[in-house]
Amino acid sequence: MSRARNAIVSALVLLVGRRRRRPKPEETRLVPALPPNPAAELVVLALLGLCSLAALGFILIYAFGDSLSAETPLLGTALGLAFLFLAAALIVVGLKLVPTEELAEEYPPHEHPGEQQVIAELVDESGTRFTRRRLLKLGLLGAGGTLGLAILTPAVSFGPLFHVGNFLRTPWRRGRRLVDENGRPYKAADIEKNDFYLAFPEGTSDEEKDQMAASLVVIRLDPDQLHLPPHLEGYDAHGILAYSRICTHAGCAITLYRAPLFQPDEPRPALVCPCHYSTFDPATGGTVTFGPAGRDLPLLPVYVDSSGYLRAKGNFDGPVGPSWWGVRLWNAQP
Ligand code: FES
User: Fold this and answer.
1) Which of 113-122, 233-242, 306-315 has the lowest mean pLDDT?
2) Ligand 1 center to residue 269 CA distance, Å?
3) So what's the pLDDT on residue 53?
4) Is 291 close to ligand 1, i.e. is its CB under 6 Å away?
């Protein structure tokens, strides 16, 4: 507890300590005068510098480390080190640079204005051992600033600033067959109207199947029911459509298919997310017809090979998963 208090006083001394004044006579000081300790100051400066470097490392790994296999452990290590160095710097300040003494005295019955003056003097006089006050102040501000930036960095990737490849990567690429949960490849003839099917990329592990980017809902519509927008022309295979199973609102799985219809209440088939009832029209490219989803359901282009199997023609037409700031700026990546 007293260490924590020392650390807080240390930080206060560094940040709000004023310019060195002419030393007070010993008998009028509240805090005993102790000699400067330049070696400890150097250690503090070094630790604050290391804290800044570690926080900067976090930001760089986050921004450019998409291809690193150990990106997550590296991020954790960098942030952990930044906090460790900052804590170590404050501990050195508390132990080696701020005079400490324990005085037992009763609480005064009421606050009185003189107390503030006493605290200001305490902070002021506690800093008299510092010889490189400005440098230390800069070091502390630098460490605090880079650490604050590092903490804010992950939020920035929701905006258009960082291109975070992991959010956009999917295992789909041209020629990959669509398989069911047991790995059995789908043939076009397996897909019947008024039913819907769960599909995954062939050859993916169970772990990859759990990845949100991988799974599909596959349905069949009459080709003359289709009104796909021009940029999605050719995405269906004779009326077979393969949509991402992940709702573009908050990422729940699409588990409801409104077909067959109950005429005349429901005019067209629809894919529905049970979480908040976002409803997507598969005939028009997964457009949102109801609910809170803010963008269309991504569509995977498919074709039927010479043996009748369903295969992907490429990747989705847009990013898979829940929406975030700037999501419309990028495309899904294989
Ligand atoms: S997550 Fe699908 S509607 Fe909210």
Assistant:
1) 113-122
2) 18
3) 94
4) yes
**Strand extents, DSSP E, 162-215:** 178-179, 197-201
Whether the CB-CB separation of 279 and 301 falls below 8 Å is answered with no
CA distance 282 to 265: 18
- The finding on whether 275 has its CB within 6 A of some atom of ligand 1 is yes
Looking up tokens 């050195």 gives 92
| Structural domains in the chain plus CATH codes | 2-156 (no CATH), 167-329 (2.102.10.10)
Nearest CA to ligand 1 atom 3: 276
Surface-to-core class of residue 4, CB atoms within 10 Å of its CB (0-12 exposed, 13-18 middle, 19+ buried): exposed
CA distances for 36 relative to 76, 268, 331, angstroms: 37, 81, 59
pLDDT digits (tens, 9 = 90+) for 180-213: 988 999 999 999 998 999 999 998 777 666 655 7
Question: What pLDDT is recorded for position 17?
Answer: 54
CA distance 53 to 73: 17
- Report which secondary-structure segment, H or E, holds 66: none
**Mutate-to-test residue for ligand 1 from 212, 249, 323, highest number of ligand atoms within 8 A of CB:** 249
d(CA 174, CA 301): 9
**Full DSSP string of 80-103:** HHHHHHHHHHHHHIIIIIS-----
Segment 120-176, tens digit of pLDDT? 777 777 777 777 778 888 888 999 999 998 888 887 776 667 666 667 778 899 999
